[in-house]
Design brief:
527 residues; alpha/beta; FAD/NAD(P)-binding domain; 2 domains; 8-stranded mixed beta sheet; 5-stranded parallel beta sheet; 13 helices; 22 strands
Length: 527
């Protein structure tokens, strides 16, 4: 049972990050202030946990929506779905929101729900080490040291820009930048511009810059599947109606959710549904690209779903312009004067823009967190492969939880239910208990409700799983192997929390609680 947390503004204290130094110790340290970090902070406050900090390495919150400011930047998930269910926004301007609106929405949620007093900006996590004697994390940041009982990583995959692995990337004599680090001081008017990459970012900024430049060369390695973008501006009467009748806004959100869920069938079915989706994408290409030779170069030769399916109404029309050239043989190298394609032809340009995505599998937090065995998370993954139970917890790293962790990127396309995530303990016994499944309801982003999970044996390598209130995509529940039912929640030192109906954690004699004896709370944080 959680308390109702009403959005409130409290003057200047609610519109600025936390002032002053970092606390010496907190119960929870949240790393990152994007959707995952802000949602976790709100959920902690709903659970009555106020002893936490949100560490943000930049000077303001927002995550990827703060960093990506390229022309045409927008979300490819419908606005009413790409928002917290506990903070619906009836004032979205369009069906697919532009970047400035999404960033403003995140800032508004953080202010209204009281997250900003816990936010510490310009605080980069440099190192974190698990102390197995004190049973806590020792964190080193750019603004000082602190300890935390639990570390929650809200760092998503769209953090570190990826550049093509070709010679001479840093040798270009003119301006060169990644779309996620857009240089707004560079005037593209009348310039010869090379765009390397045709991913989700490129198909948005290519149509935006095409009218400005003298010549645009787009280097394509693999053509993406592109379907129509069902975008439109919302009218003022619609916004007013959603504001006055919240049930209609919730209905709109539910309709968009189930529509997108049904779309997934086209990616999981090898028969008529997939073929129908591919035919629609090819019709979209044929309508917008009349030239058969260019259309052939833009046609994917792989099944839909093998790569991310993109949505756009203006990318193909931008490519058919006379001053735009599509090079479909890839890039061999970058020279001081331009870009050499795979055929050996050098394209002389004035500006190079990399739209080559992100190092999704190389999250920065993996390089700085050291677990129980003295190895970083990155070392564990490089030796044994990327493994995380439900994409959330990793054996050997107690009390560390990854939101939007490995193999979790597709969760942004689905409603995420608060069904709990598991903490792993190497070599722990697994005793099954009768399960009681709580009804899933509540916000689709943030952290989960306190509840029990299904009974089951230990996982791989003698790993025992214990339930903790974090996120699991609904569709993946039937595919997950059973877990040992050892319910656990954030320790509640306040008796008022117990009066609200929070259950005491299940304890086993052979398990020692992961909390230091000198601290007041004796409730275990994990196995």
């Amino acid at each position: 049972m959680t308390r109702t947390l009403e959005p409130t503004l409290q003057g200047a204290a609610a519109t600025a990050p936390a002032p002053g130094p970092l606390p010496a110790h907190v119960r929870v340290a949240v790393v990152g202030s994007g959707f995952a970090g802000i949602g976790t902070a709100v959920r902690l406050l709903q659970e009555g946990v106020e002893d936490f900090v949100v560490l943000e390495r930049a000077s303001s919150l927002g995550g990827t929506w703060r960093d990506n400011t390229y022309p045409g930047c927008a979300c490819d998930v419908p606005s009413h779905l790409y928002s917290f269910s506990f903070a619906p926004n009836p004032r979205w301007s369009r069906a697919f929101s532009p970047q400035p609106e999404i960033r403003a929405y995140l800032e508004d949620v953080a202010a209204r729900f009281g997250v900003l007093p816990h936010l510490h900006c310009d605080t980069d996590l440099l190192a974190g080490t698990w102390d197995d004697d004190a049973l806590l994390w020792r964190l080193t940041t750019s603004r000082g040291d602190l300890t935390a009982d639990i570390v929650v990583s809200g760092c998503g995959g769209l953090v570190e820009p990826a550049y093509p692995d070709v010679p001479g990337v840093g040798s270009f004599a003119g301006p060169a930048f990644h779309s996620a680090r857009w240089d707004h001081d560079v005037d593209l008017t009348g310039q010869r511009v090379a765009v390397v990459g045709t991913g989700a970012s490129a198909i948005q900024f290519v149509p935006a810059i095409a009218p400005q430049v003298a010549h645009l060369t787009v280097f394509q390695r693999t053509p993406p599947w592109i379907v129509p973008r069902l975008d439109r501006a919302y009218t003022e009467p619609e916004k007013a109606l959603w504001s006055r009748v919240p049930a209609l806004l919730h209905a709109s959100r539910a309709a968009k959710y189930w529509f997108r869920e049904l779309q997934l069938l086209a990616f999981t079915d090898d028969g008529r549904l997939r073929s129908a989706a591919q035919r629609e994408a090819r019709r979209h290409l044929a309508r917008q690209v009349p030239d058969p030779e260019l259309r052939a170069r833009l046609s994917p030769d792989y099944a839909m779903g093998c790569k991310r399916v993109l949505i756009s109404n203006d990318y193909y029309p931008a490519l058919v312009q006379d001053h735009v050239e599509v090079v479909d043989c890839g890039v061999r190298e970058v020279t001081p004067r331009g870009v050499v394609d795979a055929s050996g032809r050098e394209h002389e340009v004035d500006v190079v823009i990399y739209g080559t995505g992100f190092r999704v599998m190389d999250i920065p937090v993996a390089r700085c967190l050291t677990g129980r065995e003295g190895r970083t998370l990155g070392q564990e993954w490089s030796d044994g492969g990327v493994q995380a139970h439900r994409g959330t917890t990793v054996a050997g790293f107690p009390n560390l939880f990854l939101l939007l962790g490995q193999h979790r990127a597709r969760a942004q396309l689905r409603r995420v239910h608060d069904r709990g995530a598991d903490q792993l303990r190497p070599g722990g016994p697994a005793r099954a208990r009768p399960a009681r499944r709580a009804r899933a309801r509540g916000p689709p982003a943030g952290a989960g409700r306190l509840q029990r999970g299904p009974a089951g044996p230990a996982g791989r390598h003698g790993v025992e799983h214990r339930r903790l209130p974090l996120l699991v995509p609904r569709r993946e529940r039937p595919q997950l192997h059973p877990v040992a039912n050892a319910h656990l929640h954030l320790p509640a030192a306040d008796p008022a929390l117990r009066r609200r109906g929070l259950r005491a954690p299940h304890r086993r004699p052979q398990h020692r609680p992961l909390t230091h004896p000198s601290r007041k709370s004796t409730a275990p944080w994990c196995c």
